[in-house]
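Retry 2 of 3 after timeout on previous attempt. Resubmitting C-alpha cells to design endpoint.
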C-alpha cells in the first residue's frame, strides 16, 4: 500500500470514528453530590445539574396549610433519619404552595436534622427516564427525594407506566434511599375524559379505570390543598410583611392585598406572594429568600 493510500485510509477511519461518536451521543457526566443540596435531572447525558441557589422561601412563611405541612415535615424527617416513609402526592388548588412546601420542608429538615438530604427535580417531560435516574441514585449513599412539579398525564401518554414502576413496581422496587414527591392539580393525575375513554373502549371497563387510578395509589400520602379563606390569605400577607420588614400599616396592607386578589380573580398563596413582590418593589426593599 502506498503512502498516499495509507494516509487516505487513516483519514477515512478517523471520519468513521467521529461519526460513531456523534451517533453515541454525549458521554455520561460525572455527578458530584457535594456540589449542592438540590439538583435538576438532565437525562440526555445522565447528569444531575447542581442548583446553587434553590428558589424557596422559609417554612415559617408558608401559612394556611398547617396540617399538611406538619404531615409532610414528619414524613421527610423520618426519611432523612433513615426510617420508613411514604411517597407523597400533593394535590389540589393552584397557587396554594404545593411546590413551595416541598422545597421549604426539604430545606428545613436538612438544616434542623443535619442530614445531607438531597432533592432532585425531574421535569414532567422526563418522567420516562426515571428508570435510568434510579439506576444512578440507588448506588449512592445519599438519602434522596425525587421531586416532580405539576405532574399530570394527557391522552395517549404512556409515561405514567414508568412512574408506576419507579414508585412501587418492578422486580427491584423503589430503592431504599429514594422517596418520590409530586405535585398536581388533579388527585388521580389523569384527566376525567381519559378515564372515561378508557372505560368505554375496554373489554372490562372497571379494570381499565383501576389501571389508571392505581397510579395515585402508589403514593402512600395524599395531601390536599384547597382554596384559602380571606383570613388565611391575610395571614400570609401579614407573615410576609413582618418577615421582610415592609413597614406598611396593617389597614393599608390589608386593603391593598384584598384589592390585589380581586384583580387576580381569587386568593391563594401565589397571589399573596405576587402582591408582596409588587409592594416590595414599590417600597424599593429587597426580598431575601431562604
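Retry 2 succeeded. Sequence:
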Amino acid at each position: 500500500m502506498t503512502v498516499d493510500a495509507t494516509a487516505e485510509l487513516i483519514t477515512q477511519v478517523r471520519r468513521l470514528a467521529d461519526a460513531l461518536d456523534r451517533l453515541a451521543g454525549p458521554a455520561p457526566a460525572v455527578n458530584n453530590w457535594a456540589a449542592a443540596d438540590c439538583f435538576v435531572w438532565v437525562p440526555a447525558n445522565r447528569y444531575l445539574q447542581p442548583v446553587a441557589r434553590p428558589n424557596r422561601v422559609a417554612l415559617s412563611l408558608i401559612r394556611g396549610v398547617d396540617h399538611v405541612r406538619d404531615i409532610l415535615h414528619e414524613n421527610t424527617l423520618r426519611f432523612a433519619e433513615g426510617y420508613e416513609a411514604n411517597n407523597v402526592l400533593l394535590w389540589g388548588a393552584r397557587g396554594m404552595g404545593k411546590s413551595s412546601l416541598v422545597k421549604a420542608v426539604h430545606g428545613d429538615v436538612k438544616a434542623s436534622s443535619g442530614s445531607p438530604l438531597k432533592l432532585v427535580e425531574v421535569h414532567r417531560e422526563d418522567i420516562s427516564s426515571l428508570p435510568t435516574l434510579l439506576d444512578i441514585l440507588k448506588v449512592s449513599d445519599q438519602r434522596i427525594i425525587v421531586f416532580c412539579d405539576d405532574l399530570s398525564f394527557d391522552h395517549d401518554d404512556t409515561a405514567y407506566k414508568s412512574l408506576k414502576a419507579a414508585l412501587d413496581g418492578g422486580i427491584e422496587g423503589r430503592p431504599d434511599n429514594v422517596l418520590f414527591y409530586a405535585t398536581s392539580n388533579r388527585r388521580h393525575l389523569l384527566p376525567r375524559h381519559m378515564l372515561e375513554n378508557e372505560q368505554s373502549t375496554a373489554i372490562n371497563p372497571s379494570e381499565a379505570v383501576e389501571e389508571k387510578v392505581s397510579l395515585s395509589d402508589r403514593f402512600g400520602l395524599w395531601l390536599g390543598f384547597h382554596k384559602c379563606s380571606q383570613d388565611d390569605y391575610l395571614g400570609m400577607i401579614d407573615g410576609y410583611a413582618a418577615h421582610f420588614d415592609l413597614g406598611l400599616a396593617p389597614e393599608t396592607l390589608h386593603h391593598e392585598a384584598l384589592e390585589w386578589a380581586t384583580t387576580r380573580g381569587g386568593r391563594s398563596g401565589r397571589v399573596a406572594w405576587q402582591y408582596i413582590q409588587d409592594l416590595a418593589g414599590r417600597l424599593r426593599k429587597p426580598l431575601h429568600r431562604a
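Attempt log closed. The CA atoms of residues 170 and 211 lie 15 Å apart.
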